Amino acid sequence: MTEITKNTDIAVKEILNGNVVALPTETVYGLGANGLKKRAVLKIFEIKRRPSFNPLILHVFEIADIEKYAKNIPDEVYMLADKFSPGPLTFVLPKKKIVPDIVTAGLESVAIRLPAHKKFRKVLKETGVPIAAPSANMFGKISPTTAKDVYKELSGKINYVLDGGKCKIGLESTVLSFVGNKINILRPGYITKKDIEKVIGNKFSDKSRNKNEKILSPGMLKSHYAPSTPLYIIEDIALANNLKNKFGVVDLLKYKNLRTVAYNLFEEFRKIDNPKYEFALIQKVEESGLGIAINDRIEKASIGNIIFVSGNLKFRKK
Ligand code: TXA
Ligand code: MG
Questions:
Q1: Tens digits of pLDDT across the chain (318 residues)
Q2: Helix, strand or coil for residue 99?
């Protein structure tokens, strides 16, 4: 039996008992366990059916905690943490031994973030342990932004979902790597490249954008957050609007700015996740600022492009 609760004490108990519990963050819901206990972390992988090569983010309460789990921390991390933490920015740094290999999938680096959600912070403070947590969805599915989304997918697999309302941001954190004396964005997120440059200047090595480069972060896999309905990208969604009945349309143009697109994006993906649609169409947003993270998630959710050729649809799979 799984229960949705608003009581943080229950989540604290679950973590301290070595169980897995769903927790709200400002980005998306996380599936948390004591990040120092191998057996507890293993349960996360089992519940999500997440491949063991995909490392987890360690969530901590305050900036000083970063030093407990990471070493060789460059000044830029402190500058960025001062500005954006707690918040949607994750630092990948050389790990200390205390972090179990299962958290980092055997890597020598660890991803660390200070979540901003009040309830998550309360759980961190009261448990006194770092909490390893991926997004609270089954592997390859859409990240949840409400307690109900989590419940629908994980009911029966965990005891509790801590309800903290709808996630304010709606997209996963920006993952920024400092490994090997280089700075790379491994996953674009709410904190944009420009936001980062304003604090530390342009120090990116931009290796992560080179397609020939080995995948640095499994979150960079081309497809990741797929709805079950095949989703195709279309240049101009207006062309599809009169055909709405035949397939699902994710209309992002109705939102007034990129923040509200981010806030609603995964819910929009969920809406088309319905067997009545054979496939669905989506148009990307402008590729700048927060639009880069939004388009990244659209790319990952889609299986190809669609074009109109003399009134007929042509599908081009990836
Ligand atoms: O906003 C978020 O980041 C949410 C909330 C729950 O905090 N978490 C989240 O976790 O999105 P997850 O596991 O779905 O995505 C974490 C990403 C993955 O792409 C993973 O490969 C990458 O971070 N990652 C974790 N540790 C890493 C490491 N040591 N080196 C490179 N990438 C790492
Ligand atoms: Mg995820």
A1: 999 999 999 999 999 999 999 999 999 999 999 999 999 999 999 999 999 999 999 999 999 999 999 999 999 999 999 999 999 999 999 999 999 999 999 999 999 999 999 999 999 999 999 999 999 999 989 999 999 999 999 999 999 999 999 999 999 999 999 998 899 999 999 999 999 999 999 999 865 454 444 445 555 555 566 788 999 999 888 877 666 567 889 999 999 999 999 999 999 999 998 888 889 999 999 999 999 999 999 999 999 998 877 777 788 888
A2: coil
114 touches 200 (CB < 8 A) = no
Query: What residues contact 122, with CB distance under 8 A and at least 6 apart?
Result: 8, 12
- Pick from 4, 39, 18: which is nearest to 119 by CA? 4
137 lines ligand 1 (CB under 6 A): no
Q: Which fold has domain 231-317?
A: Rossmann fold (3.40.50)
Q: Sketch the domain layout of the chain as residue ranges.
A: 3-200, 231-317
174 lines ligand 1 (CB under 6 A): no
Closest ligand relative to 124 C-alpha: 1
**Which two structure tokens, joined as six digits, stand for 10?**
């229950």
How far is the centre of ligand 2, averaged over its atoms, from the C-alpha of 313 (Å)? 32
Q: Do domains 3-200 and 231-317 have the same CATH topology?
A: no
CATH topology of domain 3-200: DHBP synthase (3.90.870)
Rounded to two decimals, the pTM is 0.93
Instruction: Say yes or no: CB of residue 172 within 6 Å of ligand 1.
Output: yes
